[in-house]
Amino acid sequence: MLYLVRMDVTPPRDMDPEEFARIKAREKDYALALQRDGRWRHIWRVVGEYSNYSIFDVAGNDELHRILQDLPLFPYMRIAVTPLATHPSDLAAQ
Amino acid sequence: MLYLVRMDVTPPRDMDPEEFARIKAREKDYALALQRDGRWRHIWRVVGEYSNYSIFDVAGNDELHRILQDLPLFPYMRIAVTPLATHPSDLAAQ
Amino acid sequence: MLYLVRMDVTPPRDMDPEEFARIKAREKDYALALQRDGRWRHIWRVVGEYSNYSIFDVAGNDELHRILQDLPLFPYMRIAVTPLATHPSDLAAQ
Amino acid sequence: MLYLVRMDVTPPRDMDPEEFARIKAREKDYALALQRDGRWRHIWRVVGEYSNYSIFDVAGNDELHRILQDLPLFPYMRIAVTPLATHPSDLAAQ
Amino acid sequence: MLYLVRMDVTPPRDMDPEEFARIKAREKDYALALQRDGRWRHIWRVVGEYSNYSIFDVAGNDELHRILQDLPLFPYMRIAVTPLATHPSDLAAQ
Amino acid sequence: MLYLVRMDVTPPRDMDPEEFARIKAREKDYALALQRDGRWRHIWRVVGEYSNYSIFDVAGNDELHRILQDLPLFPYMRIAVTPLATHPSDLAAQ
Amino acid sequence: MLYLVRMDVTPPRDMDPEEFARIKAREKDYALALQRDGRWRHIWRVVGEYSNYSIFDVAGNDELHRILQDLPLFPYMRIAVTPLATHPSDLAAQ
Amino acid sequence: MLYLVRMDVTPPRDMDPEEFARIKAREKDYALALQRDGRWRHIWRVVGEYSNYSIFDVAGNDELHRILQDLPLFPYMRIAVTPLATHPSDLAAQ
Amino acid sequence: MLYLVRMDVTPPRDMDPEEFARIKAREKDYALALQRDGRWRHIWRVVGEYSNYSIFDVAGNDELHRILQDLPLFPYMRIAVTPLATHPSDLAAQ
Amino acid sequence: MLYLVRMDVTPPRDMDPEEFARIKAREKDYALALQRDGRWRHIWRVVGEYSNYSIFDVAGNDELHRILQDLPLFPYMRIAVTPLATHPSDLAAQ
């Protein structure tokens, strides 16, 4: 099941930059692992913003929430989730 | 080059339903053709709304505008375009 | 899987009232049937507005979209869908 | 009488994590107690956000305010309350 | 129980002015009757707008919705309802 | 002359709680005094929020501003003022 | 007493242009008369928009509402009223 | 003096397409003439929307308003004007 | 050339009150001087808010920006500028 | 390829002013260099705000993101990017 997720990151101003860098590194590993297992299907950078749009393919709402909640950068993110359905004009659905 | 595009359709209340059905059929053919040639990479239905999120892979801004402007449903759409860049955590970009 | 759905109805000004009454009657039958089979778990009226909040329990995004799209009042509705997950403080989840 | 309540939590950045964990534990006990006595009917997690939608069944406005105001996490919450009425299509109201 | 209700009226452009005048006359009688029985406590005009703020004192959500829904101008109104509770600084509550 | 005033309070996170309690006590005395002399006609708590709606009956704009500006909690408030006029359906105005 | 008033005009599409021109002429006479008697102190065009910002100097809320409500263009306007008070840095108030 | 102007066009649904085409042709001639005399410095299409961003270089507010108000498409436009000043990092201003 | 300018002040919480009082005093002197030379034509307090609406009469965009940028309170302000043109119903413009 | 970019700067309150001045100096050098090589085509100050509108002419989305992300003031900016296409009324496109 597919979801479009927008993530806007606001780095904490009062955190030691090296600590934040470690969090970002853990975030990247986390994202790469989920992409390898196919659940994080796409991740794109929004031009000009510390934000991304991603497509998740997961079992359902609960699984998606667990994945998002465990993002190392979750405490510094504003997240918006849009559930997606198959579009009648989707070539793959013909 | 990638763009996220949201399209919200507001069907014209005063149009003959059959005429609108013809426009929608042309829209579907148009979308399928662009998906076949790879420029309209993804199209997903927003759950509960007469809207879609799509990913376009085109040469640039001008080509995207031509494609969108020629959508048969363009006169009945509100469209928002978000330019996308490669994300540092994109598995494919490692 | 649970979703919170808000529906705002804007009756068409130029429709014969009796025809709209028939659509509303079909809407009610449709809602009652889905409540009987357990997929439309709750429906509440928003005080003062021609709107409702509902809870749907369905297999996933695609099923929810089919249900909403087939609402007789769908063409006269603005719909917002919020996917829900189990809350850690939910008594039933302890 | 029913109310839909949305709660968005913004954890205080400058609080000792253990202290905040204690507040969250008190919040959970508080929520479980109110669910047991039937006033806090439902609580669902909004996917991807530190937020919940809840349904309260209380005597009226004043009681609901007391309950919400005494939430241990109240100082870190933004709350929106929507009063609900019986919907004409509610199966239980036929 | 008290509620603050904002009503914004958008007169229908295509209605015979006399018919709309009759609806407004029925609206006024309806409002006066509810003020006499104490349920419509206050009604004030928002300066410069075809809108009012009103205070209702009713048994609860369902009664308020019935009252609002039966407003003759209801089909031409956008309504926002804010449930009110006793304020700790309210002189009458000391 | 009547005004509807909404006040949203955001307590300062970094203030000693006792000092803020003293400010709140002064605020309450201030509100009670103005209610006794009739200028602060009504004060209601917005359910679930650290906010109130109030009705002021004062000589005019300047007096209202002085009253609001001197609120002990003014520095921690967001205030919105709506000037009110007599409504043609007001029972008292018939 | 001073008020800042913003007026946004949306001309009715389905009205005979000459009839609308007559309404605009009446609007102009109305505005000129109020400027001559000092109650409509200033009127400025918002660059690029069929809108104006005006300053009214009137006895109070009720008078302002009567003036605005009697604007010939009132049915085609969206109006926002901001009550103004004397500013401590106003040269005239020193 | 420079201004950034955004123009959003909403074509009238009930107008004969040929008549609208004539208005658009007059609009184009109007725009080309102003570009030739240097007052309409830039005009860009917003990708995906019937909108443009333009840069005007005119004597001041009044001249800009006259130019915009005389746009053949003005009645079908929503316009937003942002006055621009010289930026300290502007190469030309060094 | 005329501009309507709204200024919203958010006092810095962590500044020594006396230092902020000095900045406010410089702001007042600055405003009085510009009013004396006719460029700061009007300044009004928005009732209930630490905000003002002002009318500036200056040579153009660049001069207005210099004036606003040099406001002692500029770092603590959110400013919105609306360029104004002569209104056809302005008595002075007849 | 052209993009309109709006940048709103919020200076960090808790940074040593001299350090921030150094960042601004680096920002200026960065902007001047990009203007010299033609990629940063225009930069204008938004009157009254610590903001600018700029026009970039770059190869595409990825290049624009790299340029924006490397802005010394990037951490203190909110950025909005609008992709632009050739307008049919653009004199240069005739």
TrEMBL record, chains A, B, C, D, E, F, G, H, I, J:
Pathway: Aromatic compound metabolism; beta-ketoadipate pathway; 5-oxo-4,5-dihydro-2-furylacetate from catechol: step 3/3. Its EC number is 5.3.3.4. Keywords: Aromatic hydrocarbons catabolism, Isomerase. Homodecamer. The keyword Isomerase applies. This is Muconolactone Delta-isomerase. Pfam families: MIase. It is an enzyme of class 5 (isomerase). It catalyses: (S)-muconolactone = (4,5-dihydro-5-oxofuran-2-yl)-acetate. Transmembrane segments: none annotated. Gene3D superfamilies: Dimeric alpha+beta barrel. One of its GO terms (biological process) is beta-ketoadipate pathway. One of its GO terms (molecular function) is muconolactone delta-isomerase activity. InterPro entries: Dimeric_a/b-barrel, MLI_dom, Muconolactone_d_Isoase. Residues 1-90 form the Muconolactone isomerase domain. Belongs to the muconolactone Delta-isomerase family.
